[in-house]
Amino acid sequence: FLTDNGEQVLVDVEAKTNREITEHIKKILGKSKETLEKEERERKKLSHPATFGPKKYHLRECMCEIEGQVPCPAFVPLPKEMRGKYKSAMKNEA
């Protein structure tokens, strides 16, 4: 085998099955199991339905896209009692 940088790798394949050969090559040239498991955990963590952020990394861009949440103030104005100015005005009156 030749790697990307031109290095030659010799593999003894005599009396080995195709699975043994594949596993041996993965072990020599591939990533370690720990690295693969870590990458899989990262992928699962980002694709978790409870996370939100840029579409490139998450399933949802905004929390308002989750059913049952308060609509996004960018599209639907919040009720007065949920606004900071209204709350502080009510505290000052009391």
Automatic annotation (TrEMBL):
Q: Per its UniProt record, what InterPro entries does this chain match?
A: Ribosomal_mS25/mL61
Q: Where in the cell is it found?
A: Mitochondrion
**GO molecular-function annotation terms?**
structural constituent of ribosome
Its Gene Ontology cellular component terms are:
mitochondrion; ribonucleoprotein complex; ribosome
Any keyword NAD?
no
Sorted UniProt keywords: Mitochondrion, Ribonucleoprotein, Ribosomal protein
Name of protein = RT25 protein
State the species of origin. Chloroceryle aenea (American pygmy kingfisher)
The opening ranks of the lineage are: Eukaryota, Metazoa, Chordata, Craniata, Vertebrata
- Coding gene? Mrps25
